Amino acid sequence: MAFPQTRMRRLRASAGLRGLVRETDVRAGQFVLPLFVTEAEPESSGGRLGREPIATMPGVDRLSLVAAVDEAKEAAALGIAAVMLFGLPAEKDAHGSGAWDREGVVQLATRAIKQAVPELLVTTDVCLCEYTDHGHCGVLREDGTVDNDSSLELLAQTAVSHARAGADIVAPSDMMDGRVGAIREELDGEGFAEVPILAYSAKFASAFYGPFRDAADSAPAFGDRRGYQMDPANGREAVREALLDVQEGADMLMVKPALAYGDLISAVKRATDLPVAAYNVSGEYAMVKAAAAAGYLDERATVLEILTSLRRAGADTIITYHAKDAATWLAEQT
To answer: How do the pLDDT tens digits run along the chain, 334 residues long?
Structure first.
């Protein structure tokens, strides 16, 4: 029926009514907190040992192993489901060999966190860019282009080394064709058939990654990553990428970035019906922080609205640097 019989405002009149009919929920148990763990002891700041603030990401630090364990404990206490580990090695080389080193920074952090907080899920980023001296996500040919196929074995070795260290989930972010299948085969062959793969399926060559590259020291030394990361203009291609990862054995899929890609979160969810993660990336985080610091917007209300929008779009999981703050704010609402 039309107005006046139908009045949409009836169910908006009080907090109780709005809560009764709310379509989308946001919970701390849906969050993944990224952590930057460094092999070198960070320069401590603000009286917090083992932490080096990242200038472009206020509130986020590079962490020593001890500080990473402390951060994981805080996340678990807030009800956050998982952490995602990014490693900053002391040394780099052309092949990124630190990525699959048994005593590498991510492997050490994984073991330490699982020992200290066994109930917290540890997800590991599987890529070579933080470990290569050239900053690209795979090994290079003589002409300086990334050799997709030669990189697959190294990525698979890295994923296995993470699983052997105790990782609950491995998340390949390199965007090499065929890497999900190569990782699945290697995991299964090494006795890790139960370890799920969260594939960065639709990872775009985005302007929103700038602060992350500062944080992880992973900017390419030359060129860019447009030859393997996706063109932001292509939506149908994102769905195709996701479907290919499903065929290769992915258990979960990711869309990255998140804020400008809600249409693709929805499209990937509809096309695959697999669990979908949205990565609320560093640039998105930094924009909110900067605007809030300038007094242009309410940080708490803005963050919760963003996270709600990602859930509404179809994200089952949200990887976000806001995770600790958001978990605290949500607990205060209950």
So the answer is: 789 889 999 999 999 999 999 999 999 999 999 999 998 776 655 556 799 999 999 999 999 999 999 999 999 999 999 999 999 998 998 888 999 999 999 999 999 999 999 999 999 999 998 899 887 888 888 888 889 999 999 999 999 999 999 999 999 999 899 999 999 999 999 999 999 999 999 999 999 998 887 776 767 766 677 778 899 999 999 999 999 999 999 999 999 999 999 999 999 999 999 999 999 999 999 999 999 999 999 999 999 999 999 999 999 999 999 999 999 999 998 7
What burial letters (b/e) apply to 277-316, b meaning 16+ CB within 10 Å?
A: bbbbbbbbbbebbeebeeeeeebeebbbebbbbbbebbbb
114, 256, 269, 324: which one is catalytic?
256
Residue 13 located in a structural domain: no
Per the annotation, the verdict on 256 as an active-site residue is yes
Q: What domain count does the chain have?
A: 1
Structural domain contains residue 8:
no
For residue 180, being part of any structural domain is answered with: yes
pTM: 0.94
- Catalytic residue, chosen from 203, 269, 289, 324, is 203
CATH number at residue 255: 3.20.20.70
311 HSE (CA, 13 A, CB side): 17
- Whether 108 is covered by a domain: the verdict is yes
Record the tokens describing residue 248, joined without a space: 């290769």
* Residue 203 annotated as catalytic: yes
Which residues partner with 48 through β-bridges?
45
Bridge pairing between strands 198-203 and 252-256: parallel
Q: Show the domain range for 51.
A: 24-333
